[in-house]
Amino acid sequence: MEQLTIKTSxxxxxxxxxxxxxxxxxxxxxxxxxxxxxxxxxxxxxxYLDDVYNALKADYPVSYSIVPAGEESKxxxxxxxxxxxxxxxxxxxxxxxxxLGGGMIGDLAGFVAATxxxxxxxxxxxxxxxxxxxxxxGKVAINHPLGKNLIGAFYPPVAVLYDVxxxxxxxxxxxxxxxxxxxxxxxxxxxxxWEQIKPVTLDESLSEATLIRDLIHxxxxxxxxxxxxxxxxxxxxxxxxxxxxxxxxESELGYGKMTHGEAVAIGMLFAMELSEQHxxxxxxxxxxxxxxxRNDYPLALPRLSVNQLMxxxxxxxxxxxxxxxxxxxxxxxxxxxxxxxxxxLRQQLETFLEKMVIR
Length: 359
Prior knowledge:
With 359 residues, this protein is α/β, with parallel strands linked by helices. It contains 12 helices and 11 strands.
């Protein structure tokens, strides 16, 4: 079992990584909760809901909701429906929400917990590789049609329980999506560990030992940054490397057309090329592109409106005074936040998108 502790301004919480944690859930509850409410999705429920429910039902009143799988469920409508269901189930301020699923469920259920009766406890039980990033750090949110994660809060869980057995059933596309965030961590961390990720092939040859190694490395990067900057005042924004354009592409294509990690991978590629231009440096852009191609990331985009993408990028949470801020790299392991001039950014984006259409 691997365990680390995340320190926040309100409370510390454990991140536990092990096999079979869903069967041992009761031992990680530090309160005698009068009610527990599990929120999961239609993909995860048939696989793991019974395990979690059965681990608790003898000692706690347990209810649950199953939302449709996919980013479309991170919406105001689904959020409001869940609030209604918690009220009807009689969950009070001493209750507990369990977020059983990937990053979408963690964000959605976490935002429900953060706002229900002004905040109740919740536990993250991530079931995807991507959620190694989103489950740690206490950022919870739902999407708005005009932008991703624009409605949210900083609200840390009381625990993150990462049962690695649940990773055995995720589809290849989710493995690919999650490893994009691990690649991100490998490039912003000092010292960088991109050379450790570069040889990884995301197919049946990927060993559990390699996966756990990379997950722990990624979680440690996230944990260290979050502890230094819990509310994203400065260095936590470095975790958005690749996300400014990535989120814009997700929104422009329509949520669910491309996974979060797939969009972030393209955003990272753009940020690396922009970094080379801005700082007159050399980064492993081709090596990263080759890694993405070898692992079947979608690298061909339809023709997208640069104007629309720029508008969406200006809605990014880092934006101030309508100036787009990009996380760039001075070198691997040295991220910086840069104010971008519209005309220069537009020119670079047009060139980049043209390559992504015909590359």
